[in-house]
Amino acid sequence: MEFYRLKNNPGAVNVSDIPVLEYDAFTEQTLTLLKKREHHAVDYFTTCTGNKLRFFILIAGDDTHTIYLYSHVQDRNVKVLNSLTAHHYPMHVFEREIFEEHGILFVGHPWLKPLRYPNERADRNAAMSNYPFYTIESEELHEVGVGPVHAGVIEPGHFRFICHGENVLHLEIQLGYQHRGLSGLFASSRNMLHRALLAESIAGDSAIGHVLAFSQAAEALCSFIPPSTLQTERIVALEMERIAVHIGDTAALCGDVGYQLGQAACEALRTIVINTMQDWCGNRFGKGLIRPGGTNFPLSADIAGHIMEKLDEVRKRFGNAADLVYNNTGILSRFENTGTVSLAQARHLGAVGVSARASGLKRDVRASHPFQAYTEMKYSPPALDTGDVLARGYMRKLEADISFMVIMKLLDTFRESGSDISPKPDYLMKFKPETLSVSLTEGWRGEISHCIITDETGEVLAARLKDPSIHNWTMLALAVRGAEISDFPLCNKSFNLSYCGHDL
Amino acid sequence: MLNELKVLSDHGRQYISDLRNKPVSERFRGRPVISGEITSNEIKEVSAMCPAMAIDSRCGAIDLGKCLFCNECALMLPQRISFTNDYRISANRREDLIVRPGQTSQIRPGEVYIRKEVRHLFSKALKLREVSAAGDNSCEMELTAAGNVNFDMGRFGIEFVASPRHADGVVITGPVSENMAEALKMTYDAIPDPKIIILVGTDAISGGLFAGSRALNRKFIDEHTVDLYVPGNPAHPLTFINGVLDLLGI
Ligand code: SF4
Question: What is the pLDDT at residue B2?
């Protein structure tokens, strides 16, 4: 096999060291690697220079803590290729993306449709308004269209159901409404601070997960190793983000089934977490806290103590509230066996993150490709196996508990030893030329990955920013199959996927 | 039952009784103050650094409609620029979001620019339809929070409703993508007259970070009169609530 094996997260490799394979060999190797259960495709994308299109694939080896990297190069006017999706389903979104951007037809792809309607799409006749939905001709069936604007204060997306009475036979999700052209702005930006701000906006609810992934990718391009206090700060922030969302989602799930006590209690607890974040860095979502090379908000003993005190209170109270929620028979009857995704399905779809773990698929970057302070810990992710709303809900409780523990441990160590103050951010870092860096973090939704490729002067040539949602949207579509359409909001909430992260 | 009582008693009283004067973290970045002593060289330097191009390179004014509240200007010129934690920074004229060197006055919606029917019709109840037009979900979450147990703007009859048919106005978040332009317009058109428009977050007000992107279509914003601008990245629930209260004269 011909690949470059990246052993570190983040890691960097000379672009010329990434093997280039003929498409047939590329396909064969990809399918062979992906046969193994511990492997999954982290990302698959193209870069364009002159008349050449280069396809990069990143395959994670979860058991070996590595990333396999290789590529394929072809002329831009080659417009037909055999589909990888036909043999390995999780590739479907990536091939749709390449199809949409470059007009390449992937033979054997089950539904080669536009993904997000970017401005630079190959087919200008493809429009949001004429998305080719799957339809069934039948007098007994009807279609229900929901969105893009939804009843709640949430992001836009369109859901098209094919129903038999109340039962959902099929759901197709059309996204793209949120497309801002972020990757393009990122790649053309010549300003590190500007890039950090863009990274924080990929998905505002995962600002920390994304800006950390970006900072790591940038630091790998200049061999900067973050000092241990900086690593502590980053992981404390990342886990606070996770706790806040997990508690907030618990509130939302309670709200969806009309359990007001659970909703109110959890909303208030989320507020405490994000207000503590604001006490630390001035922003409830942690925007401004994580930067390449350092931070503007170094931890002090006072702030560490404040975070510990607040989080300890939240931990106890959330424990009580979750006990209440998950012992309430009314709630259990709504959550149990609703929106089930089996382990086999999760695996088939290439699911990641907390939703995958709720179905028993133990994929977690903190364990498989440890980063920052996680390199010093043996993180072992919890998992459940029922894959229903209950599992996706209860995972939030299990994960929040671990996050509390991780934060306390890190802050304890910081307080005992910590006199070193983290450096200031470095916006003038010089990147190595012709290098590709890969950085993974485990955001609260799952695997975030950022890749930056530099040109011969060390300037950014291309960037690839991946939100975990892109792997998981089809999970939601499968979860509601056979369910009553009225269960859709609950299912949707239990995944809480990102629209803007998908659409960028 | 005992467990319920325990959770209830832990929960205690979360309600913020005085939303007008509730203090927030000292580090929260709200209204900036720029020293009148700032020199033209300093202005040049800091405006070139600002990643949002929010600082006027001639006079040194900060445009809160463009500012992303990243704090870098204050770190660069700590003697000249600082962000106070004054979160009441909503305005109803675009130019009132511009804070000039030497200016220490607060930002408030100008009474004379409020359309007569707004207070007359909506001050007892204001129902709003929210449209996220490529927002990053942080402003959206803050708007949801504005109605939660802490901020509870519902006490003033202000709430988000599920249908534009039930709404008195639209709240827009996000820089307005080309792909959402039509849905935004359709939602607005479906709201009965008279109606108001509120822009929440820097992205909505100016396009923010995405201002130059070809994936945007801000025609709707350019063609309509905006009743309230609520800056922030994201806008704080208190910035939104206070802005709306000022608009309605509550
Ligand atoms: S805080 Fe605002 S004005 Fe200052 S540098 Fe950041 S974006 Fe520019």
Answer: 78
The highest-level CATH class for domain B32-99 is alpha beta
Structure tokens at A172: 């197709």
**What pLDDT is stored for residue A43 in this prediction?**
96
**Per-residue pLDDT, A231:** 95
Separation of alpha carbons B250 and A55, rounded Å: 59
State the smallest CA–CA distance between residue A343 and chain B in angstroms. Answer: 30
What per-residue confidence (pLDDT) applies to A418?
66
Q: Please tell me the predicted confidence (pLDDT) of residue B9.
A: 84
Ligand 1 atom nearest to B71, measured from its CA: 1
* CATH of region A4-126, choose from 3.10.180.10, 3.30.70.3040, 3.30.460.80, 3.40.50.12160: 3.30.460.80
CA–CA distance from A158 to each of A83, A175, A202, A205 (Å)? 26, 6, 20, 20
Task: Say which CATH class A182-233+274-495 falls into.
Answer: mainly alpha
| Class at the top of the CATH hierarchy for domain B111-248 | alpha beta
Residue A323 and residue B14: Cβ atoms within 8 Å? no
What DSSP string describes B214-240? TTB--HHHHHS--SEEE--TTPPHHHH
Are the C-beta atoms of B108 and B91 separated by less than 8 Å? Answer: yes
Q: Is B104 on the interface with A (CB under 8 A)?
A: no
Instruction: Tell me B100's DSSP state.
Output: P
Enter the DSSP assignment of A73: E
Residue B17's pLDDT is 87
- Check: CB of residue B54 under 8 Å from CB of residue B46: no
- The 10s digit of each residue's pLDDT in A382-440 is 999 999 999 999 999 999 999 999 999 999 999 888 668 899 999 999 999 999 999 99
Residue spans of chain A under pLDDT 50? none
Q: Is B104 left (phi over 0), alpha (psi -120 to 50) or beta?
A: alpha
Per DSSP, the residues of A426-473 read -TTPPPPTTEEEEEEEE-SSSEEEEEEEE-TTS-EEEEEEE-THHHHH
Do residues A287 and A210 touch, judged by C-beta distance below 8 A?
A: no
Q: Hey, are the CB atoms on A271 and B145 less than 8 Å from each other? A: yes
Of B3, B83, B212, the CB nearest to A324: B3
Read off the pTM: 0.95
Within this chain, domains B32-99 and B111-248 share the same CATH topology: no
Which pLDDT score is estimated for A137? 86
What residues are in contact with ligand 1 under a 6 Å CB criterion? Answer: B 50-52, 54-55, 62, 67-73
Q: Of A476, A502, A463, nearest to A180 (Cα)? A: A502
Is residue B11 less than 8 Å (CB to CB) from chain A? yes
Do A31 and A88 touch, CB atoms closer than 8 A?
A: yes
Q: What is the pLDDT of residues B119-160, one digit of tens each?
A: 888 988 999 999 999 999 999 999 999 999 899 999 999 999
String of DSSP letters for A212-264: HHHHHHHHHTTT----HHHHHHHHHHHHHHHHHHHHHHHHHHHHHTT-HHHHH
The domain ranges of chain B are: 32-99, 111-248
Ligand 1 centre to CA of B139 (Å) is 18
Neighbours of A24 (CB within 10 A): 10
| Domain ranges, ordered by start, for chain A | 4-126, 182-233+274-495
CA distances from B18 to A4, A227, A282 (A): 60, 43, 21
Is residue B1 over pLDDT 80?
Answer: no
Four-residue CA torsion sign, A91, A96, A101, A104? positive
